Amino acid sequence: MALIEQLKEEQKLAMKAKDKTRLGTIRLALSAIKQREVDEQITLGDDDILAVLTKMVKQRRDSVAQFEAAGRQDLADAEQAEIAVLEDFMPQPLTEDEVSVLIESAIAESGAAGMQDMGKVMAVLKPQIQGRADMGKVSGLVRSKLA
């Protein structure tokens, strides 16, 4: 089942279950997807939708950190609940070992010799790990392997 249909089906189920948090989060996701489709005048595929969901999760993680720093645990908990709902639609996260193997193969595939080739390695890695690992951490791992 395509990701957009899965989101719409889950929206119906959340309505029937009267789960306001889940329903609101799914509506936000569908709205963000629709906004990108209208802005770019295209129909998004699963990879593009996954990128939108990944961006939404990243924004919420940033918000959680800011709310906790400001002592607003109630708002941080609400953001955490939204992250949990969004992660239901994302692929299974990669383990550290799997990420290391992918990094090694990307370095070999791109023929990277040093830090100047970081962009090449990341270009190979990004489609493989989009939504399945934190790109910031992966970037740090690639840096350490190339240095």
Automatic annotation (TrEMBL):
Keywords, ordered alphabetically: Transferase
GO terms for MF: carbon-nitrogen ligase activity, with glutamine as amido-N-donor; transferase activity
Top-level taxon in the UniProt lineage: Bacteria
Protein name, UniProt field: Glutamyl-tRNA amidotransferase
Naturally occurring in which organism (per UniProt): Vibrio nereis
Organism ancestry: Bacteria, Pseudomonadati, Pseudomonadota, Gammaproteobacteria, Vibrionales
